[in-house]
């Protein structure tokens, strides 16, 4: 089968985040199973990739020319919905998977429905108000949640059921031979707990920290960067495609998120290398950390976060205990990529089959 993933966001390598890596591993997994995959995304209007895209548009006449940087076709252009018909036609798509992550994926889902193809909608976050108007009114779509937490919240808000498949994490993408000697925070944006992590670093000058950017650098981070430089024990790193460079230096992972995480991909990544996690006990992050770390209330006082850090940093026996728990937790069935890909593929095939059985279905592509 031919599957087209669609998103309103930028994509790898322009945007390097958990949602993008989850999509990438799904795409590669489906291709390994013999399917043909494509992805339609918005293009960031800067850099070599944007320049190359402009040249391809002039040479081919296509609004969303494809590249194969990620190992499969990625159709890039401005305003993803504008390239939907072109990508569906070029890929000869049998189904469309909408990546349900802000901003406004619901509008893209409505455009996908107009193609007449079966449409699936992956719920990647629980900020449903940012998915656009009418998310709960979308009909004829099969929903897939990235955690039990996401599925339950979606059910409560809209009365709709969804399948559950955790975000796939490949060991080859993140596994390191042995934990390092620093405290790692991936994505220091304030909603992800950057302020808490910085305060911890300032209070523990003898402990080395790494702040690894995930989202593109923005003005919110300027003050944190200034404080990191003054602290002297915080190494600030920019976006990377190979996250192993960060985990190779990490002894502890911090995830003091201040919003409801739909899942907690970084916890799964850290666990694969036996790296314990100190995280907020909220949303799907609680399940992703499980026994492989310490959980605190998101609004816990700084002193509680520092006590948790001291406990893992100073007590080698406790660190080893949680490291072992992390490793054991990382190999459960629901986090096995082969199981996840097979389950995801079955859902798509079932959706295509059910769609074909509906009466009076004709394919009408949007113009």
Write the layout of secondary structure elements.
Layout: E1 2-6, H1 18-32, E2 36-42, H2 47-60, E3 66-67, E4 73-77, H3 84-91, E5 95-100, H4 105-113, E6 119-123, E7 141-145, H5 148-158, E8 163-164, H6 171-174, E9 182-186, H7 194-203, E10 209-212, H8 222-231, E11 234-237, H9 244-247, E12 250-255, H10 265-272, E13 277-280, H11 285-289, E14 293-296, H12 302-314, H13 316-329, H14 337-356
Parallel strand pairs: 1-2, 1-5, 2-4, 5-6, 6-7, 7-8, 9-10, 9-12, 10-11, 12-13, 13-14
Antiparallel strand pairs: 3-4
Helix pairs in contact: 7-8
CATH architecture of the largest domain: 3-Layer(aba) Sandwich
Strand order of the largest sheet: 3-4-2-1-5-6-7-8
Shape: globular
**CATH level-1 class of the largest domain:** Alpha Beta
Extract low-pLDDT stretches.
361-367
Estimate the mean pLDDT confidence.
Answer: 94
Question: What percentage of the residues does DSSP assign to strands (E)?
Answer: 15-25%
Radius of gyration: 21 Å
**Helical region count?**
14
By DSSP, the count of extended strands is 14
Helix fraction? 25-40%
